[in-house]
Amino acid sequence: MEARAMSESRTIQTKLVLPPDTNHMESIFGGKVLAYIDEVAGISAMKHARRHVVVTASIDSVDFMSSAKVGDVLELEANVTSTGRTSMEVYVRVKSINLETGEERLTTESFLTLVAIGDDGKPTPVPAVYPETEGEKLFFESAPARREYRKNRVKTPR
Ligand SMILES: CC(C)(COP(=O)(O)OP(=O)(O)OC[C@H]1O[C@@H](n2cnc3c(N)ncnc32)[C@H](O)[C@@H]1OP(=O)(O)O)[C@@H](O)C(=O)NCCC(=O)NCCS
Prior knowledge:
Elements: E1 4-5, E2 11-16, H1 30-49, E3 54-59, E4 73-83, E5 87-97, E6 104-116, E7 129-130, H2 134-155
Residues 55-58, 84-87, 113, 115, 123, 150, 154 line the site of coenzyme A (COA).
Domain HotDog ACOT-type: 7-120
Protein name: Acyl-CoA thioesterase
Family: Belongs to the acyl coenzyme A hydrolase family.
């Protein structure tokens, strides 16, 4: 399977924060942002794997650095940063934009692991990914450490 450039999976989504997405203080629910993150990561992984079926195996910790209010815009950017045999690590960065002032703030960022599913309903191999820019190289080279961390976390007895 031919390796694909990281940029090929780049996906950008823009969402307007509406009243049903927010609490009584007009701040967006964290769960809503998570749903957006899951969606954009899924599209990015589907682009990379060129498959319609991918599932989210895990979402790394998500810290909310700032909120977004009704009328703000959320911009989500995702791309595949590394791959295993059947899994893809996807990085998602979310920023909020105040359309009146133009102020942009980082809302959150996270890494997700998505797995490509074959026609038999089982995990199926995905192409490798390669970085092209210096920024992409940083994500790519730090991926094995994150993968190792996840493996150990899953092994932790509950
Ligand atoms: C994720 C899932 C497909 C893994 O299936 P499995 O039978 O355990 O398959 P495998 O053990 O072969 O793992 C497949 C890949 O997933 C990775 N994986 C499995 N669990 C993982 C986890 N918790 N975090 C990160 N990666 C994980 C494995 O490392 C492996 O990657 P690799 O092929 O690149 O080495 C399966 O657990 C599943 O379907 N989970 C539910 C997914 C879902 O429905 N998500 C939506 C929200 S509920």
